[in-house]
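Re: [ENG-882] Designed sequences occasionally contain unexpected residues at chain ends

Forwarding the minimal case from QA. Structure tokens:
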């Protein structure tokens, strides 16, 4: 069986997404792989398809129990035999998994990195034919990544202990150039094929809102999107609990999730969200890794995350089905203080002492760049992509800043005064001292430091603190100033040579407080936009059937069929096997399990509405099928 036939028969897709076929062909050719692909681009297909084609078993190393369980449920639903071993299983259950794997029942076996040192697992690995070791969330192996896990370092020892070295494949959604190099080196990949498909998620609309009453904003947003599923991330457990109670008090069907809850309560909350029993979940960053819920329509960050890697990974949980979705960050200056506090109390117990200072410096630098995202007046999408090394020319015209009205202020002379003040400080003080000095603030601390005697003291008292913060942020981005990455974050002189040119101007864009134009012609259209009223009615009928089957089988609804598949089914209205196999996401295994029931539902609907037109162009299904990603793997 070749890769395309496997893709269609097992997963129901007609073609590969960008990068997938290239990766699969390299694995089939015996090469190690390092793939960096954004969330929703179909990373799992890249190792699941070749696992079906390789002679032995593929060991998938995954960091979280929930991630393993979701992946294995989805594979078994697609007719692919897979198993997992983790602490949720009893010893008897684990022994049964080993037996099945040795008998050749499984093509994929998911394990946590901690399991690799277990005596029984090492013994099992010596007796089974391992064709490939796949490292999911591979950024966890890098000390310079945002989610370093020392247990991942055990992977290298495990591979080196094997009598025959298997193919090694590593996958992650977020990795800077440094992290990418680190993954390849630490995992000891041999002449790896490195594939970076790009970081852009075109269906996601990014926005930053600076609001004082965040709870009111969230309630208003949910009121305007009552049928949408969403995640709201908070920096602290206290914020999670408070916002959760506020939502419940307003009648919102919400759940919460954080590490302070017991395992049973966390699982109940997660299941209620995944199984669509609750539309919204409020959580810390303890929630989400490996959650494959495809119809999350919005992700709101109640607080600014600590890094762009964290933000993009969490925001990327929206719109995994390719549908238009929103990623909104609610920013306030207090968020910076919260994150500094959290970083100051970070656990370094598993980190070598000699590496701690460097990691702290990198954490501080990441926080600074995250703050830059929140304060920039430029294109938000371009800021994200450039952070990950992907240069863009023009603004995206599909983010909050691109749809916000700004005015430009020439602050060249102000900029020179800021630089003069930093020169007077001799690079000894942080942003608050510099701003206070320029504003002529009457503070005991400034008198104590002697900055009240500077020539620049009060030089910009005609400006607001907000304006000066924007100006300093721009000067930092342009390299005229730089901020140290230690805990004191002092401001120092950068390269000011360009400012000596009389033609150089420092232009600052300021928001006119106009709301972003959400309804824009460039915004990604929803796939349901192609459905008529009758088509949407059929879609809702199929969703109800999917939910009924999911409850019967104890599976998340999206594992039965994704929303995208149900939309395509509503457009194509299949009434026989051949027709339903032409629907995106319907393979042979899914047809055998569920196909007849969905066909019956379509036939029943057409019987009640014989003249119904379900899509905008009755005789042109192709034009109205789901957008460019329709029928592609992932």
């Amino acid at each position: 069986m070749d890769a395309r036939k496997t893709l269609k028969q097992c997963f129901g897709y007609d073609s590969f997404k960008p990068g997938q076929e290239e990766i699969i062909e390299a694995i089939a050719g015996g090469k190690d792989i390092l793939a960096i692909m954004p969330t929703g681009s179909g990373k799992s297909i890249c190792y699941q398809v070749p696992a079906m084609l390789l002679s032995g078993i593929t060991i998938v190393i995954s960091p979280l129990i929930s991630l393993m369980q979701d992946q294995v449920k989805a594979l078994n639903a697609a007719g692919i035999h897979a198993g997992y071993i983790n602490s949720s299983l009893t010893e008897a259950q684990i022994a049964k998994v080993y037996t099945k794997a040795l008998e050749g029942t499984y093509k994929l076996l998911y394990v946590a990195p901690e399991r690799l040192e277990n005596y029984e697992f090492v013994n099992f690995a010596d007796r089974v034919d391992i064709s490939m070791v796949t490292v999911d969330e591979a950024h966890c192996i890098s000390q310079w990544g945002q989610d370093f896990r020392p247990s991942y370092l055990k992977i290298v020892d495990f591979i080196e202990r094997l009598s025959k070295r298997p193919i090694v494949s590593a996958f992650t959604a977020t990795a800077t150039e440094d992290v990418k190099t680190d993954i390849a080196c630490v995992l000891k990949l041999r002449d790896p094929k490195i594939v970076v498909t790009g970081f852009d998620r075109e269906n996601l609309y990014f926005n930053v809102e600076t609001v004082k009453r965040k709870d009111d904003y969230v309630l208003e947003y949910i009121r305007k999107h009552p049928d949408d599923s969403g995640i709201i991330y908070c920096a602290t457990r206290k914020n999670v609990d408070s916002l959760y109670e506020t939502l419940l008090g307003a009648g919102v069907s919400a759940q919460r999730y954080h590490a302070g809850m017991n395992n049973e309560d966390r699982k109940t909350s997660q299941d209620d969200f995944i199984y669509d029993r609750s539309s919204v979940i409020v959580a810390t960053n303890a929630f989400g890794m490996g959650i494959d819920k495809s119809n999350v329509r919005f992700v709101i960050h109640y607080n600014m995350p600590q890094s762009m890697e964290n933000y993009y990974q969490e925001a990327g949980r929206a719109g995994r089905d390719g549908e238009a979705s929103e990623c909104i960050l609610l920013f306030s200056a207090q968020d910076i203080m919260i994150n500094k506090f959290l970083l100051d109390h970070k656990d370094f117990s598993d980190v070598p002492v000699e590496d701690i200072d460097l990691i702290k410096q990198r954490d501080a630098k990441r926080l600074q760049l995250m703050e830059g995202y929140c304060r920039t007046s430029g294109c938000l999408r371009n800021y994200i992509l450039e952070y990950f090394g992907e240069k863009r020319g023009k603004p995206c015209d599909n983010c909050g800043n691109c749809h916000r009205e700004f005015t430009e202020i020439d602050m060249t002379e102000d900029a020179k005064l800021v630089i003069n003040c930093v020169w007077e400080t001799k690079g000894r003080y942080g942003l608050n001292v510099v701003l206070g000095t320029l504003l002529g603030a009457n503070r005991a601390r400034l008198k104590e430091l002697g900055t009240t005697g500077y020539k620049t003291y009060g030089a910009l008292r005609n400006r607001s603190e907000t304006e000066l913060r924007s100006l300093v942020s721009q000067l930092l981005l342009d390299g005229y100033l730089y901020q140290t990455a230690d805990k004191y974050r002092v401001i120092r002189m950068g390269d000011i040579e360009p400012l000596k040119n009389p033609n150089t101007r420092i232009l600052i864009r300021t928001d006119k407080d106009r709301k972003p134009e959400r309804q824009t012609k460039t915004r990604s259209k929803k796939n349901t936009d192609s459905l008529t009223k009758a088509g949407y009615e059929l879609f809702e009928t199929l969703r109800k059937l999917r939910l009924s089957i999911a409850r019967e089988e104890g599976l998340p609804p999206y594992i039965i069929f994704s929303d995208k598949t149900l939309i395509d089914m509503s457009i194509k209205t299949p009434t026989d096997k051949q027709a339903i196999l032409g629907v995106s996401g319907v393979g042979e295994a899914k047809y055998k399990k569920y196909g007849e029931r969905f066909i019956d539902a379509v036939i029943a609907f057409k019987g009640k509405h014989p003249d119904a037109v379900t899509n905008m162009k009755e005789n042109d299904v192709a034009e109205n099928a789901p957008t460019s990603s329709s029928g592609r793997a992932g």
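QA comment: On inspection the terminal residues look reasonable. Residues 3-196 form a domain with the Rossmann fold fold (CATH 3.40.50.300). Proposing we downgrade this to a documentation issue.
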